[in-house]
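Translate structure to sequence.
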């Protein structure tokens, strides 16, 4: 997983190995805009997990999100902390929120945490 040495929710290090290279973390507005440009110009499916360090539900689902990235190698996985990307995530009203993209378009969204629900939606969009 590409990362910038920062910690995730509750200090959880986001340096877990990802064997498919399909996991990224964005921690600036510029990086978030670059990822969104790439996703919207690509036909490849992607999911963005919007979370926050102060959010206990985000802390609970993040390890599952990281694990699931190994089970769905055709999906691009992105973690974005809404406090680190305040200008480009100001439309995110709930954390965690998962946005799903296909063929350059946002096609789905989940608000809240739940590993089984997240797995099912990832399967649907992979």
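Result:
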């Amino acid at each position: 997983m590409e990362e910038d040495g920062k910690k995730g929710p509750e200090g959880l290090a986001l340096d877990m190995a990802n064997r498919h290279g399909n996991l990224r973390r964005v921690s600036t507005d510029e990086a978030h805009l670059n990822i969104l440009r790439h996703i919207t110009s690509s036909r490849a499916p992607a999911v963005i997990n919007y979370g926050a360090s102060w959010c206990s539900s985000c802390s609970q689902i993040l390890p599952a999100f990281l694990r699931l990235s190994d089970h769905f190698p055709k999906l691009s996985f992105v973690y974005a902390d809404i406090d680190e990307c305040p200008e480009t995530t100001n439309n995110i009203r709930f954390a965690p929120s998962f946005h799903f993209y296909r063929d350059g378009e946002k096609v789905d969204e989940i608000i809240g945490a739940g590993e089984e629900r997240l797995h099912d939606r990832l399967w649907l969009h992979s």
